[in-house]
Write a structure and sequence with these properties.
The structure is a homotetramer. Chain A is of the alpha/beta class. Chain A has helices spanning 12-21, 42-45, 62-66, 80-89, 106-113, 120-125, 135-139, 149-162, 194-197, 211-222, 256-260, 263-270, 319-333; strands spanning 2-7, 27-33, 70-73, 93-96, 127-128, 143-145, 174-180, 202-203, 234-240, 246-253, 277-279, 297-305, 308-315.
Chain lengths: 349, 349, 349, 349
């Protein structure tokens, strides 16, 4: 059994980690921390967990965490980087669901997160945890930076077209993305209140969003063409009145070489062996409820003009976009079957 | 023109008052106060008001408010009672949308609201503003306590049966009430967050709710039988994942005398001249959307056993349950046509 | 492995059965029928099942169904009773999710469902599948009538008080029930359309609902006091703008004997060994999301007057209220561990 | 008083027309037709209209309609063109809310709507009713084709940039559009059912949507550069789990000439005198609720790169996107003040 600690269990990614890990056949969650709720059983906060666990929040105790095989940080940005070195030194693997280990460029990180990185060397050794695309490095990683939710959809949506040079025009990629409200976290903020969000739709972060630089850096790593620049891709997120679910509509300019390819076949082949990636049949498009509560990511490919492709990608932002992919990474790091504990079918309706 | 001041314009009842009053043909809103937003145009907070008003929040200035003909308090409980005497002395009429002037029994008020009443004499002279049932007193009132949202549905739902003695068993009245989330106000609280309320339903205040004593006192006033006691009526509210709307299901035990009556005819006659009360035809029941955004209250009467009656009452909690009825009261107090500015049709769908 | 057939897989209970059974360790679904979709893969209808099953709808073939160990009917009322005898004769167990085997009184059944029962003898031998309350009979049953969703909440909510005579006043039970829209099924009806139900709340079936006679009959069976009559209990359902979830608020008049008891302790003891029933701690009430997607049913007990008790019960109408309890019954009938395949944790948020 | 007839009053645009016209000071609705509901009071279908009108559905009687000053067609595509000539001959003005008079190119119309146009000459004389952009022609029109909802947002969002040549790259316009579910109409279709749409988000019509050719033709008329081609603009609509509201995110490539302009000032000036168009201040973006139930259309302009502009446009799809603009056109055609009956403030929250 793998012993697991969770730092910061009061947010939505925390409770989602528990929903998955409490049913994972090879895992025991031994420690659960919270600054604000120490001493309280987690089931008091989340009645869905009543009867499922006796876990009680404790203060963060680094010595206790060192006893764990794996520690997940479901905390605000900046917490994991304070504790990661001590844990790694104790041979404890670290998976951060915040942004501390997502971006290698320190200036970019500081600019967008307003934080000075406290362990840049460990950051360099850490692995960006897009499971399907960095599986080999994740296997040997001590620290994994779990990807942002939007960047997960974009990378998996574009990878087949980027792993050959010259198929698309990189600087013309445009991503119009939409997310359910749970992506904003569990916080007492006026902007998150029910009556402000229900029966309403809006764009946000139009002038700039933290996931833009993460996408730019990550696509650069994926791209076979090492000279390609993604700095000018466009990314505009929107907020949908639903709890869970994320859909990215990705618009791509194909080169003539790309236009000549059978894109559908390219994607189907690329993802043929992936349990969690589903390329929908031509003519269909995925909806977010088809993945609600599951770790699946589905996508469709529609050529609307000879050189124009629309890729629609959906996932559950809290599962494949956060806690699910984190557990998928844990499975890879621990040498387990990659889908262990993650085979639940989406809740529909 | 009637000059109006609004104290506390940052909540949902505040913006709803403005939505109505800015289109009221005989009103000018001259003053709008907020402790936290002074200096800011209200349209910055509520983009629905862009282009509709130049009003800017100011600090509460009692001298300025005294210039108004009518002042509405759309504030937390306990604010209106601090300023009402000064305003009344200056001949300014006061309409409080909070609870300061709803309950005559001071002990009950203190127990449920945790506040010592600061102007008990003025409270005694004030009128409880259930427009249809206290019209004559409201006409001559200086201070009106606008009813709570739930109590409005209950009083109008029961009045025809209470204004004759001996038709029902008072102590057996049972009210199972349901409200949209906007009733909880515009506050940065975790319990109000979208992802905590969407696709969810719950009871609250089961062990006791502030509107219970208000209902008990008000029904006592309505009842023809002055010996009737309503202390043991049951009232349990629930929270519905919708923004606006309130539905009360009221269960009544009819006496044999009551059972012998044509209840449908009784209600239709009782409300025949009321613009804002709609008795639905036998066999139908109202839904909340039929009154969304309007000042209408609709009800249906279904006898399910010879001595058992189910009354279903709906209203928009922010209109007839709050701001709309407040304006209706203003119209009565100022000698205007009662439905002036309040004839908008419900938004359906 | 148990081989399972599902008749009528195009509705919400059908797809929910599959969500559960495709992950059940001891089950293989071998047959899936639909009159209208024969020949189509089920994953075409429900993209959530893509990659999870190769099952294709077929026409109902009784010979094929006879090969199954268990057949579920997720069909309209009246279908299961046509085929049950043939299946039972072939030693195939039958679980009907419709009403064919819920009500023993044939006149009552005909009155409320407009159908003449075609196998009254088999009906007599069939068992009403409220798992927790009829476990021993279910073990030996050939045919189980899976309970209605509302009746499940009511029976489990009242059983501890009924299994001793004289604790409550039976004829004064009042149930104000609320359900998500999926309870109405997957049908192309105007009344079910999104824009007719979203941001809306209403009562329905006020003058009478099919689940009333089912509740009356079932409570009569549970009650220790065999002279108790439940004919006059009140049951009024409402429709909540959410997909899944059901909450029943049950109002009970305690006798003096009942009022003297520690009700909380009574319930906790009664359900101490039940995996799927959770008695919430005093002072709390359950919300529907705490059981979303799970087979749990949670309840709370609040004494609001010395002789008045409010019981709040929640479940997911499609799981414990339908497909989940059906699988629970299958587990019991087949001698499996009762919670096999049913331990998934609720999806929150 | 203007006498108005409405053909097809059972859909959402029909009831929305009535919500507006029953409060219009210069209008009397005299006739209301429906094939399926003839003889029934409209208030039976739409309880929001109870007490507001005695109107009863009648069969379509062309002689009766000829008595009207204005007839609105709130019917499926293909109905208005059958009756328009007779009405025009009788001096009755026609406003069609369907597509019969939106597209001048007959081949395009037939291809997308599957209908042969029955009065191509009248079509040529008809005016496309984008009120703000074709006001002068509308004044003198006998027949107005009310624009599609999406095209309204796109044209008003782009007009200021198109009325000078050379500011943008026409063929690179990309519109990612999102609509509430009411846009699909009031129909008994499975795809519109609550449980299929709530808590869900999807793209639709990715491979092609009827509003694309309408947008292409209409932008061609607006554009100062008569050689500009809009054939290759991209338009992808999405469905949002909300009743009302539409948001279009429009991505534009600015030329160097366009990039050198103060776009914000350009738009503010262009719309300075428009009552129903609101250019939001720089740095803000509009949300759909800010226009819920009102005839306002709001937009924001965000330059995200020197040559890249993001225009976000919102409207209520049933008001400015349908019934509201239709009444606005009626006001123009009848020489009334353009905002008469249309000054209601949005319902927020």
């Amino acid at each position: 059994m793998i012993s697991v600690g969770i730092v910061g269990g009061t947010g939505y990614t925390g409770v989602e980690l528990l929903r998955i890990l409490l049913r994972h056949p090879d895992v025991t969650v031994t420690t659960l921390t919270s600054r604000t709720e120490a001493g309280k059983p987690i089931a008091n906060l989340f009645p869905s967990l009543r009867g499922q666990t006796e876990l009680t929040f404790s203060d963060l105790d680094i010595e206790e965490l060192k006893q764990c095989d794996v520690v997940f940080f479901a905390t605000p940005h900046g917490v994991a980087m304070k504790h990661a070195e001590a844990l790694v030194a104790a041979n404890t693997k670290v998976i951060d669901l915040a942004a501390d280990f997502r971006i290698q460029n320190l200036d970019v990180f500081e600019k967008w997160y307003g934080l000075k990185h406290t362990c840049p060397e460990l950051l360099q050794q850490s692995v960006y945890g897009l499971s399907e695309l960095r599986r080999e490095q994740i296997k040997h990683a001590s620290v994994v930076g779990n990807p942002g939710c939007y960047p997960t959809t974009v990378q998996l949506g574009l990878a087949p077209l980027l792993q050959q040079a010259g198929l698309i025009v990189p600087e013309r990629i445009l991503i119009d993305a939409k997310s359910g409200v749970s992506g904003a976290g569990r916080k007492a903020e006026l902007s998150l209140v029910y009556s402000e969000n229900a029966d309403n739709f809006k764009a946000y972060g139009v002038a700039g969003h933290r996931h833009h630089p993460e996408i730019v850096e990550a696509l650069g790593v994926i791209a076979a063409d090492t000279t390609a620049s993604f700095d000018n891709i466009i990314f505009v997120p929107h907020l949908v009145p639903m709890i869970r679910g994320m859909l990215s509509t990705i618009y791509v300019d194909l080169t003539d070489k790309g236009a000549a390819l059978d894109i559908q076949a390219l994607y189907e082949m690329f993802y043929a062996d992936e349990y969690f990636v589903d390329v929908m049949p031509q003519g269909s498009v995925p909806d977010t409820r088809s993945v609600r509560g599951s770790n699946m990511l589905r996508m469709s490919l529609t050529k609307i003009q000879p050189n124009k492709l629309v890729i629609v990608v959906v996932q559950d932002n809290l599962v494949k976009g956060a806690a699910g992919q984190a557990v998928q990474n844990m499975n890879i790091m621990c040498g387990l079957s990659e889908n262990l504990g993650l085979t639940g079918i989406a809740l529909l309706p």
